Amino acid sequence: MKHDEIKAVLFDLGDTLLDFGKVDTTRAFLEGAKLTYAFLQEHGQPVPPFAWYFASNLVRLRIRYLVSNLTHRDFDSLEVLRAVGTRHGVKLSRAQWDDFAWLWYEPLSRRARTEEDLREALAELRRMGLKLGIVSNTFVSRASLEKHLRLLSLLEFFPVQLYSYEFHVRKPSPEIFRIAADKIGARAESILFVGDRIDNDIRPALASGMRAALKAAYTNEGKTVPPGALKIQRLAELPALITQINDAVASTPAAPA
Q1: Side-chain half-sphere CA neighbours of 23 within 13 A
Q2: Which residues pair with 10 in a beta bridge?
Q3: Can you tell me the distance from the alpha carbon of 12 to that of 249, in angstroms, rounded to the nearest whole number?
Q4: Where does residue 140 rank: exposed (0-12), middle (13-18), buried (19+ CB within 10 A)?
Q5: d(Cα 41, Cα 36) in Å, to the nearest integer?
Q6: In what order do the strands lie in the sheet with 160-163?
Q7: Which residues contact 187 (CB under 8 A, 6 or more apart)?
Q8: Every domain of the chain and the residues it spans
Q9: Is the separation of the CB atoms in 225 and 214 below 8 Å?
Q10: How far is it, in rounded angstroms, from Cα 243 to Cα 127?
Q11: What's phi and psi for 212, nearest 5 deg?
C-alpha cells in the first residue's frame, strides 16, 4: 500500500500516552469508593453503610464490564454510578457529578506516569504542522480524562479525542478508525497510529490503511511486531521518525501516469 506523508498522529491513551502499568484495580476502586463516600457525606447526601456502597457500585460496574466485552461496546461509567446513587436518593448538580466521577478515577490517575519529555515531543510534533488526537477504549468519563490531561499540561495538544463509550463501536473495529480519520481531517494513508496493543491498535490501524507504531509496554512484551509496523521505545522518538518517513516519501519519484 502506498502511503502519503504523515500529516496526523493518533494516540492510544492507556500505556501509550499515560503509562499505568499493571494496576490492582480492586485496590484503586476501594480508594475511589472511600473518596466518593466522603464526598457524598460532605454534601449532605444519603449514603448506605460503606460496605454496601462499595459492593453495590463494584458489582454493577463489573456486570456492565462483562456485558461490554460480550457486545464489544463500552459504557459510560458515570451513568452507571449515577444510577446507583440515584437509587440511594443522591441528588447532585451536573458539575458535582463530574467531581464525583473524578474522585472514582483519581486513585487510578495517581498511578499513571508519563515520559519526562513528553510535552516537548508533542510540542515538536505540533510545530511540524501535524494534527494530534486520541482514540481510546474506555468507560471513564470524558470530563475525568480531560481533567487528568489538563493536570499533566497535555490537554492543549489534543483537540480531537475519541472515547469509545461515546460511540457504538470500539477498537479494533475498523469503523472507529474511519471515524477518527474523519474527525482529525486526514486520509488514513497520511495518519500514524501509535499504541501499545497489537490486537486493538496496531493490526487494525494497518488494516485501515494507516501507518502504525508500537510503543514498548508490558502489554506487548515479548511479542512480534506485525509486518509493516514500526517499533518505538519512547514517544520522544516520533518527531525524528516522522521527519525521516516524510523526507523519504517526498524524495520518492511519482509513478508515471
Answers
A1: 21
A2: 133, 193
A3: 25
A4: buried
A5: 9
A6: 160-163, 131-136, 8-11, 191-195, 211-215, 230-232
A7: 4, 181, 209
A8: 8-20+118-251, 25-111
A9: yes
A10: 12
A11: -145, 140
Compute the distance between CA of residue 170 and CA of residue 180 in angstroms, rounded to an integer.
Answer: 11
SS3 160: strand
Cβ atoms of residues 232 and 215 within 8 Å: yes
CB 192 within 8 A of CB 225: no
Distance CA 136, CA 15 (A): 11
- How does pLDDT run across 99-145, given as a tens digit for each residue? 999 999 999 999 999 999 999 999 999 999 999 999 999 999 999 99
Stretches where the chain sits below pLDDT 50 are none
> According to the model, what pLDDT value does residue 251 have?
87
Instruction: Supply the pLDDT for residue 255.
Output: 59
CATH architecture of the domain with range 8-20+118-251: 3-Layer(aba) Sandwich (3.40)
CB 10 within 8 A of CB 194: yes
Rounded to whole angstroms, how far apart are CA atoms 131 and 7? 6
Cell 499504541 belongs to which residue? Answer: 195
Type of residue numbered 171: K
CA–CA gap between residue 220 and residue 227 (Å, rounded) = 15
Asked if residues 218 and 197 have their Cβ atoms less than 8 Å apart, the reply is: no
Give the type of residue at 57. N
Alpha carbons within 13 angstroms on the beta-carbon side of residue 108 total 24
Class of residue 80 by CB neighbours under 10 A (exposed 0-12, middle 13-18, buried 19+)? middle
Q: Which residue has the cell 454496601?
A: 52
What is the model's pLDDT at position 253?
A: 76
- Report residue 189 as a C-alpha cell: 494513508
Whether residue 172 is preceded by a cis peptide bond, meaning omega within 30 degrees of 0, is yes
* DSSP structure class, residue 237: G
